[in-house]
């Protein structure tokens, strides 16, 4: 009997606002615990929430990017539950009237429908003591940070598809600067609803919610584990319980957390302290005008406009700042293939090595254009170019300055190279002899010697030409 998994995701994204959802506390990550709090986000009596306009605009932006229907009137609701990280004992969320519905995002295996996008506030963070006792600490800095929840249709069919979906989603959200989507800092978190059914069956199996998926790796591993677990139960003729399970990263298993709550457990009701969220066409159009070209579209344009391969275009458009960097450099030196090579090769390696961002490091697009041009015009060798790039990254000085000061300019005149070639021939009789008798391999060795003497500055084409000319000379004599 063959089974297939059905997966739906609930993705929580912390929005890139300066202040919290309903108060003016800062959202900056990493501050000392409980220093970014006020009576509103601590849920003290008598306070009133005020909606963050920027958070609404960012959610509208996401809704537009995914082709959702945006509601002209949506409403905040109270979701009540008791947990120590929730100071008010309720979370302000959206329930029956979400901001947006019915979008989609395309992955390799097809279009994945989005059920809804809504706004809510984050809870505080519990820190469980690992040593010296049995206690937990609460940091309310996170309480009230604007969250956007994106819920997919149960349309994903494998852990790989789920990971690809999340990667694509993250890419779009980062392009539009809706969120930094840092999984390490918890600004992109995900729960998954997983069920398994016999292939060909129409109704869905009993679904289990898996929480605590904090990396792409844990999404893949947790889903694989959970699909195996449910399939095994079905094969053994056992029942699957509807429940919420927690991914235990250390033990690499999902564990029962609690029985599944029903919506009525949360006693949702409209938030009495906030008016319905009314959006006019102008509100939406204003946000629409801020949309930038999305990664898929940009990738296709890179292939058509710059004649890049699909692979090159994929790499260069993966992050907006890399794509912007490439396009700026290309405007200064219209050799897209050559620049793509530098950016994807040496520059990417150096930036990674120094743990820098390509958009914020000393080798500006204009410096890279200058360097690539010098190599192509034969002023320096490609090998020397690599050193210049490293030097430019370390010192922030322009490639032209580095080249002139370090005397790296390529030696490409016969007058200078001829004596060096002769010297090498005299000093390496055996190799020269081999080469004269047709061993082409010896040519590489001789060229290497010339390079060594010129500290890599000799123009390789000219060196080869000179050595060959000498061979002909000898044979003619
Ligand atoms: Zn506050």
What features would you describe in this structure?
It is a single chain. Helix content is 41%, strand content 19%. By secondary structure, the chain is of the alpha+beta class. It folds into 3 domains: 3-286, no CATH class; 295-406, no CATH class; 414-476, Arc Repressor Mutant, subunit A. The chain has a 9-stranded mixed beta sheet with strand order 2-6-7-10-1-11-12-13-14. A 3-stranded antiparallel beta sheet has the order 5-4-15, with no helix packed on it. A two-stranded antiparallel ribbon has the order 3-16. The protein is elongated. It starts with a strand and ends with a helix. The model has no long low-confidence stretch (mean pLDDT 89). The site of zinc ion (ZN) has 8 residues, from loops.
What key phrases describe this protein's structure?
477 residues; alpha+beta; Arc Repressor Mutant, subunit A; 3 domains; 9-stranded mixed β-sheet; 3-stranded antiparallel β-sheet; 15 helices; 16 strands; 19% strand; elongated; binds zinc ion
Name the shape in a single word: elongated
Helix content: 40-55%
- How large is the share of residues in beta strands? 15-25%
Task: Give every kind of bound small molecule, once each.
Answer: zinc ion
Low-pLDDT segments, ≥5 res? none
Radius of gyration (CA) equals 31 Å
């Amino acid at each position: 009997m063959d089974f297939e998994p059905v997966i739906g995701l609930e993705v929580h994204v912390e929005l890139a606002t300066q202040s919290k959802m309903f108060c003016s506390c800062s959202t900056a990550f990493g501050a000392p615990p409980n220093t970014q709090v006020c009576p509103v986000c601590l849920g003290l009596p008598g306070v009133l929430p005020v909606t963050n306009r920027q958070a609404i605009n960012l959610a509208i932006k996401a809704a537009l990017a995914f082709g959702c229907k945006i509601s002209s009137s949506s409403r905040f609701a109270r979701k009540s539950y008791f947990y120590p990280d929730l100071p008010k004992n309720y979370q302000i969320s959206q329930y029956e009237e979400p901001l947006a519905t019915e979008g989609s995002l395309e992955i390799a295996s097809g279009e994945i429908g989005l059920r809804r996008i809504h706004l809510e506030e984050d809870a505080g963070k519990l820190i469980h003591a690992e040593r010296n006792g049995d206690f937990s600490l609460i940091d309310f800095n996170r309480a009230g940070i604007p969250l956007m929840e994106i819920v997919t249709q149960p349309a994903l069919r494998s852990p790989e598809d789920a990971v690809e979906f999340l990667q694509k989603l993250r890419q779009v959200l980062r392009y539009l600067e809706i969120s930094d989507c840092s999984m390490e800092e918890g600004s992109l978190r995900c729960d998954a609803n997983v069920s398994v059914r016999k292939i060909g069956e129409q109704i869905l199996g009993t679904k289990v919610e898996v929480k605590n998926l904090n990396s792409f790796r844990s999404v893949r591993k947790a889903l694989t584990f959970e699909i195996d677990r449910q399939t095994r139960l079905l094969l053994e003729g056992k029942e699957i319980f509807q429940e919420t399970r927690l991914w235990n990263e250390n033990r690499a298993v999902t564990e029962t957390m609690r029985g599944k709550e029903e919506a009525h457990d949360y006693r949702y009701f409209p938030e009495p302290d906030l008016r319905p969220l009314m959006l006019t066409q102008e509100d939406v159009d204003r946000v629409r005008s801020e949309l930038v070209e999305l990664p898929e579209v940009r990738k296709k344009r890179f292939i058509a406009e710059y004649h890049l391969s699909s692979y090159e275009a994929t790499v260069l458009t993966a992050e907006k700042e890399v794509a912007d960097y490439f396009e700026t450099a290309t405007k200064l030196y219209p050799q897209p293939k050559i620049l793509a090579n530098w950016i994807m090769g040496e520059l990417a390696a150096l930036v990674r090595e120094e743990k820098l961002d390509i958009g914020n490091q000393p080798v500006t697009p204009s410096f890279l254009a200058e360097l690539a041009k010098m190599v192509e015009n034969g002023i320096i060798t490609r090998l020397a170019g690599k050193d210049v790039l490293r030097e430019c990254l370390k010192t922030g000085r322009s490639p032209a300055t580095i080249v002139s000061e370090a005397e790296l300019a390529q030696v490409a005149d016969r007058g200078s190279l001829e004596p060096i070639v002769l010297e090498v021939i005299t000093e390496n009789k055996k190799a020269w002899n081999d080469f004269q008798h047709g061993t082409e391999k010896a040519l590489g060795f001789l060229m290497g010697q010339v390079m060594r003497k010129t500290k890599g500055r000799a123009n390789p084409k000219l060196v080869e030409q000179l050595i060959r000319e000498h061979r002909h000379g000898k044979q003619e004599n």
